[in-house]
């Protein structure tokens, strides 16, 4: 808890004066005012986050947090729980979608085991920070102890701190965990007040029967834990996941070290929402890379006041949307720092 408290104390809202400076800089570049649309807003907020007009994004990194979920006992996933460990191995071997995107984009990857239940066959390169072998079935009891939730948050804080210390100037994050869309749906319903039906989708290919079980699990969990859902830690420990907690911590750590951070999809945004509930100023440092097809994602983005950079119908997770968003942020900063001014180019702006 000491690291969590110290990190929250370190986070402060971005200074609007830096955004104003960035706007003035944009007006001096050789383009019509506002002609790069939202990319200008992205660069302006990055200037406020970093408190400089000499912006860089040459060292991006995505952290992927993996953990398992006891709620899988309720038949909420189309895939068995063993797939979590198998996919982590695939990440480590370079064979997953996020590996392909990261190679194409020159993005570093950090793979973190926060709570994978089964042994990982090829652990070389894995950051092993396992808190527990997955969560409990939250339809029967709280998903985790508060101490476990805090420990997982602090893992995420430390991963972000280490990234900042190594010179990373742009961060993203994603997840892997069979059953975690059910957890994200329960978190979303608890934070937004929306019904289980409004925020629970098919995840990774659930059929109608599986979707019905997911919605039932979310509804039963909300009823069982109703008395604990009035605080972010209460929501997290009751219906969350260890990887969701770590992603919340990653957002807090990035904000504490003033590094822009891109959320991935639905589950990642659930982690971001917990972080913002723990420390509202964290929202100033977040960019939504994309909006997934999961129905709960739109509700979370609205809760956070974030407009996604992309809407491509993605639902893979793994940080794939964040990888695409990183390239857009890099483009926005390249224009901000690399374009000539009217004065330097000898171009009239009258």
Key features of this structure:
single chain, 350 residues, alpha/beta, 5,6-Dimethylbenzimidazole Phosphoribosyltransferase, Chain: A, domain 1, Rossmann fold, 2 domains, 15 helices, globular
Summarize the structure.
The protein is α/β, with parallel strands linked by helices. The chain has helices at residues 2-10, 16-28, 38-50, 82-93, 97-105, 146-165, 180-192, 196-199, 208-224, 232-239, 242-256, 266-278, 295-304, 320-338, 342-345; strands spanning 60-67, 108-115, 127-128, 170-176, 261-263, 286-288. The radius of gyration is 20 Å and the shape is globular.
Structure description:
The protein folds into two domains: 2-55 and 335-345, Nicotinate-nucleotide-dimethylbenzimidazole phosphoribosyltransferase (CobT), small domain (5,6-Dimethylbenzimidazole Phosphoribosyltransferase, Chain: A, domain 1, Orthogonal Bundle); 60-330, Nicotinate-nucleotide-dimethylbenzimidazole phosphoribosyltransferase (CobT), large domain (Rossmann fold), CATH 3.40.50. The model has no long low-confidence stretch (mean pLDDT 96). Helix 7 (180-192) crosses helix 13 (295-304). With 350 residues, it is of the alpha/beta class. It has helices at residues 2-10, 16-28, 38-50, 82-93, 97-105, 146-165, 180-192, 196-199, 208-224, 232-239, 242-256, 266-278, 295-304, 320-338, 342-345; strands at 60-67, 108-115, 127-128, 170-176, 261-263, 286-288. It has 15 helices and six strands. Helices cover 51% and strands 9% of the residues. Strands 3-2-1-4-5-6 form a six-stranded parallel beta sheet, with helices on both faces.
């Amino acid at each position: 808890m000491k690291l969590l408290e110290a990190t929250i104390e370190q986070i402060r809202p971005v200074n609007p004066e830096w955004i104003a400076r960035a706007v003035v800089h944009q007006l001096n570049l050789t383009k019509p005012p506002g002609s790069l649309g939202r990319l200008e807003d992205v660069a302006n907020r990055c200037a406020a986050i970093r408190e400089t007009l000499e912006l860089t994004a040459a060292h991006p990194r995505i952290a992927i947090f993996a953990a398992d979920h006891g709620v899988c006992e309720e038949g909420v996933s189309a895939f068995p729980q063993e797939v979590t460990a198998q996919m982590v191995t695939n990440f480590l071997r370079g064979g997953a979608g996020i590996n392909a995107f990261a190679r194409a984009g020159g993005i570093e990857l950090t793979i973190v085991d926060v709570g994978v239940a089964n042994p990982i066959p090829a652990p070389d390169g894995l950051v092993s920070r396992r808190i527990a072998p997955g969560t409990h079935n939250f339809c029967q009891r709280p998903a985790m102890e508060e101490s476990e939730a805090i420990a997982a948050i602090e893992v995420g804080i430390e991963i972000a701190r280490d990234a900042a210390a190594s010179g990373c100037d742009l961060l993203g994050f994603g997840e892997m965990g069979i059953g975690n869309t059910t957890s994200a749906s329960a978190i979303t319903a608890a934070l937004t007040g929306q019904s289980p039906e409004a925020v629970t989708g098919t995840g990774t290919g659930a059929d109608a029967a599986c979707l019905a079980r997911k919605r039932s699990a979310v509804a039963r969990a909300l009823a069982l834990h109703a008395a604990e859902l009035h605080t972010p830690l209460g929501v997290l420990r009751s219906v969350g996941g260890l990887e969701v907690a770590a992603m919340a911590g990653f957002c807090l750590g990035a904000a504490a070290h003033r590094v822009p951070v891109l959320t991935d999809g639905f589950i990642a945004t659930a982690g971001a929402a917990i972080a913002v509930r723990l420390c509202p100023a964290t929202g100033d440092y977040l960019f939504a890379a994309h909006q997934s097809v999961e129905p709960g994602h739109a509700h979370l983005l609205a809760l956070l006041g974030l407009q996604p950079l992309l809407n491509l119908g993605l639902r893979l997770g793994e940080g794939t949307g964040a990888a695409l968003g990183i390239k857009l942020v890099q483009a926005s900063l390249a224009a901000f720092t690399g374009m000539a001014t009217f004065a330097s180019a000898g171009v009239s702006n009258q």
